[in-house]
Amino acid sequence: MSPLTYQWQKGTTAIAGATSASYSTPTTTASDNGTEFSVVVSNSLGKATSNAATLAVDPKVPGTTDVLTYHNDIARTGQNLTETTLTTSNVNSAKFGKIGFYPVDGLVDAEPLYASNISVQTSGSHNLLIVATEHGSVYAFDADTGSKIWQITTLKAGETTSDDRGCSQVTPEIGVTATPVIDPKQGPHGAVYVVAMSKDGSGNYHQRLHALDLALGTELLRGPVEIQATYPGTGDNTNGTSVVFDPKQYKERAALLLLNGVVYMSWASHCDIRPYTGWIMGYSESTLAQTSVLNVTPNGSDGAIWMSGGGLAADSSGNIYFLDANGDFDTTLNAQGFPADGDYGNAFTKVSTSGNRLAVADYFEMDNQASENSTDTDLGSSDALVLPDLSDGSGHTLHLAVGAGKDTNLYVVNRDSMGKFSSNNSGIYQELAGVFPGEVFAMPAYFNNTVYYGSVGSPIQAFPISKAKLSASATAQTSNSFGYPGATPSISANGPSNGIVWAVENTNPAVLHAYNAGTLTELYNSNQASNGRDQLGAGNKFITPTIANGKVFVGTTNGVAVFGLLP
Fold first, then answer.
1. Which residues contact 17 (CB under 8 A, 6 or more apart)?
2. CA 545 – CA 512 distance, rounded (Å)
3. What is the radius of gyration, based on Cα positions, of the chain?
4. What is the pLDDT of residue 22?
5. Structure confidence at residue 26 (pLDDT)
6. In angstroms, rounded to a whole number, what is the distance separating the alpha carbons of residues 297 and 373?
7. What number of CA atoms fall less than 13 Å from residue 293's CA on the CB side?
8. 374 membership: H or E segment, kind and range
9. d(Cα 186, Cα 123) in Å, to the nearest integer?
């Protein structure tokens, strides 16, 4: 029998020189996705053609980083560990500064998101910057050139954005407040999930969930859908048997969370204006159908979930963590140590999503909750951060999360046993009482076994972790302080190297700061260059900088300022 010969083909066309038993394609691009390859095998007895193999191309370019959700990941660490362009050596006013500004039609309260190498039918591949505004608009910019790829409004015909509901927290209008979330694999080109508030011509208020095509901005899944909910209870806005979600009483302040195919959202009040309670809702990312609802103060009042614009956090087991604001807490506990009436105001809360059903799985409540609730000294002004697994040095692995609020204490909970409610907080894993100089109205960040916090009127402080315990006091701090609302840091690094802490100061003009992550010595700020070269306009509270692929994006009152290495 004669030996076998091989001829590889692309589609039905023979590939020149491809006559070995195996074949490796040349470097591919997104346009090669779906290409079929086969091989014709011959000898003296005849020939046979193999079944076709379909090429699947990962559209992401090696070395690029996406920021698809608030603070980079569902743990909300705020760290980008694949930044190879920006280093502690070149981030200085001689080499680094403002290189662009992308204007929009309203206040940017949501963190800008970044999706790399997205194929747009009319213009090829782009790194997209997704920006949402309080004017109810969502934009996709080319992140490198600033060209506008698409812009949509979340308003229906005859609608306006919501007024500020008599509250100065988000003013003068409320459109898209919460940071959206992106799934690049949903739909034909990826999907952007957005919650928007509006008001129709009859004076009715609406909260809607949109799924937008990432490349085109068009609505997917027959969206948007009206957000509606009820939950068993006799608390604020009850109909006698259930509390009812009233869209005019709420804003979606905390970032969306995409977890196991479900988009989770939570709800804040307008300046504690009753009636309101604490809601979390889940919607299927593939159908936009509501999957589950939880109310954490169903037989009481208050309990908003806003966390200064942070987001619901999650662990790898599908549990959600958040800090609840001032609200009713039931000190009468059942046999398992849970509030008998299901009210968890001011609690550090763990929620299970098992079986697509939201349910409180564990919690921690401070012993002085009554006084904190009555004086608005609540925990919910900041966000939970889920720490990576840590070793205590004795062979035990700990699953921890951190949180802080207006009482200036830092709370570390064991996610496997959070502590519930007890005298003297005896059940909590670690409490650092009064460790912050000011109240905490900002999200922390984590990098290289260190937690970073920026409280009001204070420096950013670094708390290293040793043997699964945070240091009792800060070991480093910035030389400057941050006025209200403090600072939410973001981190860029190349693995454990070239760590940079980025934060925005809410002043006029606002100031972007960059610090060495190890020492918190300042590398750069946007006021250093002469003639106002790098200034970005008035400050915007709660803003979180986004770092991706050599650029830093900062939301402002009327656009996004872009920083990078100077030409």
1. none
2. 9
3. 25
4. 66
5. 54
6. 13
7. 20
8. helix 369-374
9. 21
Whether the CB-CB separation of 564 and 102 falls below 8 Å is answered with no
Q: Which residue in this structure is represented by tokens 């599908």?
A: 318
- Which contiguous run of DSSP H or E holds residue 231? strand 230-232
What is the tens place of the pLDDT at every residue in 440-466? 999 999 999 999 999 999 999 999 999
Cβ-proximal residues to 203 (8 Å cutoff; 6+ apart), any chain: none
The token duo for 228 is 């509606």
Model pTM? 0.89
What angle is formed at CA 487 by the lines to CA 167 and CA 109, rounded to 5 degrees?
A: 45
Q: How many CA atoms lie within 13 A of 493 on its CB side?
A: 22
Find out whether the peptide bond into 485 is cis, omega within 30 degrees of 0: yes
Residues contacting residue 298 through CB under 8 Å, at least 6 positions apart? 231, 232, 233, 234, 235, 243, 277, 341, 342, 343
Q: What is the DSSP secondary-structure string of 172-211? A: SEES--S--EEETTSTTT-EEEEEEEEE-TTS-EEEEEEE
> How far is it, in rounded angstroms, from Cα 551 to Cα 120?
22
> Rounded to an integer, what distance in angstroms lies between the CA atom of residue 280 and that of residue 379?
17
Instruction: Collect all residues with Cβ–Cβ distance below 8 Å to 16 and sequence separation of at least 6.
Output: none
The C-alpha atoms of residue 36 and residue 95 are separated, in whole angstroms, by 47
Q: How far is CA 358 from CA 262, 292, 400, in A?
A: 11, 6, 21
State mean pLDDT over 319-344: 97
Structure tokens at 50: 């193999």
Burial class (CB in 10 A: 0-12, 13-18, 19+), 380: buried
